[in-house]
Specification:
Layout (H helix, E strand, L loop, with lengths): L3 H15 L1 H8 L5 H23 L7 H25 L5 H8 L2 H11 L7 H18 L10 H23 L7 H18 L12 H29 L1 H4 L2 H17 L5 H17 L5 H5 L11 H6 L5
Helix pairs in contact: 1-10, 1-12, 2-5, 2-10, 3-4, 3-9, 3-10, 4-8, 4-9, 5-8, 5-12, 6-8, 7-13
Family: Belongs to the EamA transporter family.
Protein name: Multidrug transporter
Pfam family, one: EamA
Amino acid sequence: MRHTSSYLRLLVLALLWGSSFLFIKVALNALSAPQIAFTRIVLGALVLLALCALRGHDLRADRSLWSRVTVAALFASALPWVLIGIGEQTIDSGLAGVLNATTPLWTVLFGLLIGQERLRPSRATGLLLGFSGVVLILAPWHSASLLQWGALACLTASASYGIAYVYIGRKLTGHGKPPVALAALQMSAAAGLAALALPIGWTQVQFSPLPLLAVGALGVFGTGAAFALNYRLIADEGATTAATVTYLAPVVSVLLGWLVLGEALNWRILLGVLVVLTGVALIRQPDDAPARRTRPHRPNRIRGYTELLTNHPMK
C-alpha cells in the first residue's frame, strides 16, 4: 500500500472482524445464538441498504436473482452465523476466530471437488498444512483436547462459507450489479432465513447493557461498516492487498479473547494459528507466472462479488 490511510483502514478492518468473536461471546450472556445472528444481520442489512441509497444503486431483482441470492445468504450468512454463536457457547472466542480462518481452505477444497479449481503442488501443500494446523489446535489425542461440539460447529460454519463462495463464483459473479448492492440483497434475504431459526433455543432477552451493546456493535460495525470498508479497500488497493486482513483477524480475535475475557493461551493454539495461516498463504498463490503477466494490475477495479467476499473472514 502506498498511503498511510490504507494501512489504517486495513488495521481497522482487522480489528472490526477480529473483535466480532468477542462481541458474540459477550452477547451470549443475554441472547441465544439465533437471536444474535438475526440481530446482526438486520443491523448489517440496514447499513448496506443505506449505503446503496446514498450511492443510488438499483436494488431491483427478478425471481431468478432472488433465488440465487437466497441460496448464497443461507450458506454465507444465516447458517454460519448461527453455528458460530452455538460454537462459542462452549469454546473460547479466540479459538472460534482461529477456526474461522480455515474458510479459504474449505473454499479451495470444494472448488476442487466440483472441478472449479486445479490441484497445484502449492495448493495441495497449503491444504495439507492448513488442516494439519486445525488438528494440532484441536489435539484429539490429548487429555485437554479442544475437539468438542463447539469447535465442530465453528468448523462447519467455515465449511458453509466455502460452499457459499463456490456457489457465488458459479451463479452470481459477473451479474452486473455492484458488489455492495448484491451484498445488501444477500443480507436482506439472510434476515428472513435467520428469522426462521429464532424459535431454536429461544431465550428471554436479558436487558443487560453490555450484551446488547455488543450485539449492536456486531451488527453495525462488525457486519455493515466492515463490509463497506472492505469494499472501499478493494476498490482502492486491489483484492490481493485487502486479503491481508485474513491473516490479521484471527490474531486480533485471540489477543482480544486473552486481554478482555481472560481466555487461556497455549503453545498449541499459537503454533496452530501459524500453520493454518501458512497453509492459507500457500493456497492464495497465483496459478503460474505466465498467467500473471497477461493482465496488468488495476487497483481501482472490482473484479467480482466472489473476489470481494473471499476477503471477508466473517461474511
